[in-house]
Design a protein that fits this description.
The protein is 76% helix and 0% strand. It has 14 helices and no strands. The longest helix is centred in the last third of the chain and has 26 residues. It has 306 residues and is mainly α. InterPro entries: Mem_transp_PIN-like.
């Protein structure tokens, strides 16, 4: 359990640094925008190249993937139905809300949790690749379409592949599948740039927490409760049901699937929300609630299934 606590503590400390810098007026919301842009356009794509080039993409074809898809689909789908019929949200706001309800922190939190709690970082690879190669490009396509108005079908299909995060992900997958290794002259600067991604995201998030509207003050409390409940409870329960009842997964493999699904909403959803100016407060608040709430949830899952 120490690995879970260490992972959450590390994230919390870096977020607190961003909030402290804002509180001391060393930085302002302009700095938060700059950090988010650096993370979106430079650091995160570099991180994706390095991370995916080292991943085993063949692990995507597993029970882990099937259960992960089911959990994401039910959580995101439930929010989409409610957002469009009950809250009447726009396409962009609905997309960010769906990501908040279903997109897990498989990178900077999932990897250490998988390493220390599950004993193998590879357990998070299927979810990581699914999100980077399918869910994220699809969501970014919708966000781009919402930001730029109506587009022709070919523009909608090709726009995600002009997004730096998608390009970085695809390059990483090609390197993994082919076994090619980047020369040091390329790998070293990419690794250095990629190392900025998580700190930039977390510090920017801390600034927004301190200088933005208070928790729940700039949005629907019911909507926030919905995204948080879907992420913390519905998604892992659906993943458990599919893996255990339908696919017959048992033991440590089942624990890995449920723990991965119970991870909190990823910080990069806040980066996307900021970049496209859609549902920023909802993303921020959901990340905060699920990051805090995931600690007891994952500890409970580990106690029951471990």
């Amino acid at each position: 359990m120490q690995g879970v606590l260490n992972g959450f503590t590390t994230i919390g400390v870096v977020i607190a640094v961003g909030a402290l810098l804002a509180h001391l007026r060393i930085v302002d919301l302009g700095a938060q925008q700059v950090l988010s842009r650096i993370a979106f356009f430079v650091a995160s794509p570099a991180l994706m190249v390095i991370t995916l080039s080292r991943a085993d993409v063949h692990q995507v074809l597993s029970a882990n993937l099937v259960a992960s898809v089911a959990g994401i689909t039910v959580a995101a789908g439930t929010y989409i139905v409610l957002a469009r019929t009950l809250w009447h949200r726009s396409l962009g706001d609905t997309t960010i809300g769906a990501l908040s309800a279903a997109y897990v922190n498989a990178g900077n939190l999932g990897i250490p949790v998988a390493s220390y709690v599950l004993g193998n970082a590879a357990f998070v690879a299927p979810t990581l690749l699914l999100q980077l190669l399918v869910l994220q490009p699809l969501a970014l396509g919708f966000l781009d379409a919402d930001a730029h108005g109506r587009s022709r079908w070919w523009q909608l299909l090709t726009r995600p592949f002009r997004n730096p995060l998608t390009v970085g992900s695809l390059v990483g997958v090609v390197l993994s599948v082919t076994g090619w290794t980047l020369p040091t002259v390329a790998a070293a600067p990419l690794g250095l740039l990629g190392d900025m991604a998580v700190p930039c995201m977390l510090v920017a998030y801390g600034i927004a927490l301190r200088l933005g509207p208070g928790l729940g003050r700039a949005g629907s409390a019911a909507e926030l409760a919905c995204t948080s409940t879907l992420k913390l409870f519905v998604q892992p329960v659906v993943a458990w049901f599919v893996a255990s009842v339908l696919l017959g997964v048992e033991g440590h493999a089942l624990l890995a699937i449920v723990v991965t699904s119970a991870l909190p909403t990823a910080q990069n959803i806040f980066v996307h929300a900021t970049r496209y100016h859609r549902a920023t407060v909802l993303a921020r608040d959901t990340i905060l609630i699920t990051t805090v709430g995931a600690v007891p949830v994952i500890l409970l899952v580990a106690a029951v299934l471990g």
